[in-house]
Design goal:
The structure is a single chain. This protein is mainly alpha-helical. The chain has a single domain (about 1-85), classed as Helix-hairpin-Helix base-excision DNA repair enzymes (C-terminal) (Endonuclease Iii, domain 2, Orthogonal Bundle). Helices cover about 50% and strands about 0% of the residues. Helix 2 (about 15-25) packs across helix 4. It has helices spanning about 1-5, 15-25, 35-45, 50-60, 80-85. It has five helices and no strands.
Length: about 90
């Protein structure tokens, strides 16, 4: 994250929030942060790596929470595997 924010270098940041959101919306099925990073790098243009990472962190922190996800408020629920598995439509 330091390289991305302090030095303006494109980076995919994988923390617990990014991992959870990436898995729930089907961007990665891996448990390994390095594999999740590679999955995101392969699916997202480089100039969006840092902004996407920061948005996924915030989304995971405030909407897609580990224990009590706010699926009703989530703008990604139409694409979310977790939502489809846990909610009846």
């Amino acid at each position: 994250m330091i390289a991305a924010l302090a030095f303006g270098k494109a980076a995919v940041i994988v923390d617990t929030h990014v991992k959870r959101v990436a898995q729930r919306v089907g961007l990665s099925s891996s448990e390994d942060p390095l594999e999740i990073e590679m999955d995101l790098r392969s699916k997202v243009p480089e100039h969006l790596w840092t902004p996407l990472s920061l948005l996924l962190i915030l989304h995971g922190r405030y909407i897609c929470k580990a224990r009590a996800p706010q699926c009703e408020e989530c703008l990604l629920r139409d694409r979310c595997e977790y939502f489809r598995e846990t909610h009846t439509l």
